[in-house]
Amino acid sequence: MTAHHRPLAxxxxxxxxAATAHRQHFLERRPKDWDAFFAAAPDDPPLDEGVALCRxxxxxxxxxxxxxRPERCRRDTLAWLAAYGLPEGPLHMRRQRDFRPARVTKLxxxxxxxxxxxxxxxxxxxxxxxxxxxxxxxRVVHALWATPSQELRDAQEKEGRT
Length: 162
Description:
Strand content: 15-25%
Number of helices: 6
Distance between the termini: 35 Å
CATH superfamily: HAD superfamily/HAD-like
Shape: globular
Number of domains: 1
Largest sheet: 5 strands, parallel
CATH class: Alpha Beta
Oligomer: single chain
C-alpha cells in the first residue's frame, strides 16, 4: 500500500495521549479557569499506553490528531507531541467559538477524513465520542488508561470546551 493509500489512525490527546489530572483543579473552580487549564497543558505527562499504541499504529497507518482543545493551543500542542516523539500528522483542533459537544465536532471531522481514506481506528477516552463514532461505523479503541474526570466529561459534553 502506498503512503497516500495508507489508512488513518485518529488519536485524541487529553486523557488518551496526555494525562490531564494535574490541571483538573482549574475546572473544579467556579467559575472554571479555562485559560489556566489550557496554559498548563504543556506540562502534561504522556500516557504510556496511548503513546505506545500511537507509535504502533504509525507502522501501518498515517496518524491524525483530533482534539477538542481550542485552536489557540496549536503551538503548545505541536511542541508537546514533538517533545514526546509522537509521529507527525495533521492536528485537528476546535475552532474558535465552536462550543458544540465533542461527540458532534469529532464525528464531523471523522466523517470528513473517512470520505477520502479509510479510518482504521479512533482512539479516544470520551465515552460519548466513542459511542457516536462506533454508531457511525468507525472502529473505536476506548482509551481507559487515564483517571477519568467528571469535570472534563461535563466540559466536553455540556460546554464544548475540550
